[in-house]
Amino acid sequence: MDGAEFEAPEGQSLGVALALAGRLGLRRSPTAQTPRGLFCLMGSCQECLVHVDGRPVPACLEPVRAGMQVALDRLSQGRDG
Ligand code: FES
Fold first, then answer.
1. Can you give the CATH number for the domain in which 58 is found?
2. Whole domain around residue 21: which residue ranges?
3. pTM value?
């Protein structure tokens, strides 16, 4: 994730794996710049958008796969990330 490796069970929700790794802030809201992360856990709210292998996906619906490249929104790199 963003240049760092972390382990999670294959098939687990990427959003849950990130949360268990302590990464709750996945991006920032475009206007208020407030941290956003898991909310609905069913793909509806899009608050958990991350980039996996270069494509935007809701982290809550994306299964963990070996070697996947996960990039968080550049705006999420603040103190809350
Ligand atoms: S938590 Fe709502 S789409 Fe992922």
1. 3.10.20
2. 14-77
3. 0.85
1 in a structural domain: no
- Give residue 78's pLDDT: 45
DSSP 19-70: HHTT----EE-TTT--EE--SSSSSSS-TTEEEETTEEEETTTPBP-TT--E
Residue 48 counted as domain residue: yes
With a 6 Å cutoff on the Cβ, whether 29 touches ligand 1 is: no
24 CB near ligand 1 (under 6 Å): no
Does residue 75 have a pLDDT over 90? no
Measure the CA angle with vertex 40, ends 21 and 15; round to 5°.
Answer: 25
The answer as to whether 8 is a domain residue is: no
For the CA of 44, the closest atom of ligand 1 is 3
* Site of tokens 């990039």: 71
